[in-house]
Amino acid sequence: MQTQQNKISLIWFKNNLRIHDNPSITKAINNSRKVIAVYCFDPRYFQINHFGFKRTEKFRAKFLIESIIDLKANLEKHHIPLFIYQKKLEHCIPKIVADHQVTDIFLQTEWTHEETLILKGVKRHLPENIRFTESFEQFLFHPEDVPFAIEHLPKVFTDFRKIIEKQVIVRPLSQNALINFKQPAINNPTKIPSLSDLGFEYFDTHPNSAFPFKGGETHALTHVEHYIFKTKKLGVYKKTRNGLIGTNYSSKLSPWLANGSLSPKLVYYEVKRFENEHFSNQSTYWLIFELLWRDYFKYISIKYGNQIFKVKGILNKNYTWLNNKDTIEQWIDGKTPEPFVNANMIELKKTGWMSNRGRQNVASYFAKHLTLDWRIGASYFESLLLDYDVHSNYGNWMYVAGVGNDPRDRKFNIKSQAERYDPNGSYQRLWLQNTLF
């Protein structure tokens, strides 16, 4: 049996790109004499998928690079080197294990099909005595604390929410073991790839972007402080969250949550701190409500597995879906008969961002008006959105398409939505008449 003195641990970073509230870091430090870390820019995540879209487009690629730069710097303050590779994970992880005589690997738990296959592939290329320790690091409410078996997950969000709010407590933030951690400096010759290394040209953030922020934990924590405490915009979140223009109509936390630069538990406890120090109202509750939706879609993907990617969805419903290339391109390029849809699609194309209200409308138009295969729209969102999260993206698209968690199978009236949320047309003018795009 190995003692802590001769264990060499590897932290395998995926969508948990932070040092705060990170159980993998805590466990690695508490169980090892030497700790190193790795992140792989797996080429598969930058390839063209079977719907014809690059899986990760330039916006999320840039945000990811910024996040890794920040993570590397934060780890180096504690002499933990972050090794960076631009190769398939099945080659990347075994290389660093061999080069550094790694005995233990600590990583975030994943359950979707591709990630599970990759993990199995990595293990096949490693000696059998390498120990893996996985931790759930994406959730607000830990899966072990949920008071029902996953097969009994409620089919409707409201039922799920009521049970969780009544019976489950958010776990404390993971202990910060880095504070007292010291080890000799370790040479790290690897470099973080540039946009051009990943196949993209350099670009500047669009001047009208509603998300002009940088990736990384440092920027995430700064924004939490700014949104919740400095501006107190949290206090009006429920009233402003359906906005369309600017940086403050919603929390804008989702891109950092999506790649794990920000812990949902930290957001929860900062909201609670705000309520204790200032006030609580429907708005402060509503941000936690949205984090619950995020959890729910993750539980949906655990329960239903690959069904979230199938055209019939989790309801196994048959619809007649079209796949007309010209119609799809008109939607993508903002050239439909609906100006409100067009404005949102142009914003997405130019910035990698779209409001929640916009997303619901363009997705409903795609699936319910144009009756196009909803998975194509979901795949396009995956490519472009800064805050792409596999569970929320496919969960929301199923919901809108009528094959997910909405038994009402609604269809948005785009014109009335535009009149309600963009009554003077300022949003549509911003994107349909702006010469900068």
Q: Characteristics of this structure?
A:
about 425 residues; five-stranded parallel β-sheet; 17 helices; about 5% strand
Summarize the structure.
This protein is mainly alpha-helical and 437 residues long. Helix content is 45%, strand content 6%.
Describe this structure in words.
This protein has 437 residues and is mainly α. It contains 17 helices and five strands. The mean pLDDT is 95.
Tell me the number of helical segments per DSSP (H or I, 4 or more residues long). 17
Largest sheet: 5 strands, parallel
Helix content: 40-55%
User: What is the mean predicted local confidence, pLDDT?
Assistant: 95
Low-confidence stretches: none
> In which order are the strands of the major sheet placed?
3-2-1-4-5
Q: Label the overall shape.
A: globular
* Strand-pairing-aware structural class: mainly alpha
Radius of gyration using CA atoms only: 22 Å
Instruction: Compute the number of strand runs.
Output: 5
Order of helices and strands: EHEHEHEHEHHHHHHHHHHHHH
What's the structural blueprint in terms of helices and strands?
Blueprint: E1 8-12, H1 23-30, E2 34-40, H2 58-76, E3 82-85, H3 89-99, E4 104-108, H4 113-124, E5 131-135, H5 157-167, H6 217-230, H7 237-240, H8 254-258, H9 264-277, H10 282-304, H11 325-333, H12 339-351, H13 356-369, H14 374-384, H15 390-401, H16 414-421, H17 426-432
Helix pairs in contact: 3-4, 6-9, 9-10, 10-15, 12-13, 12-17, 13-15, 14-15
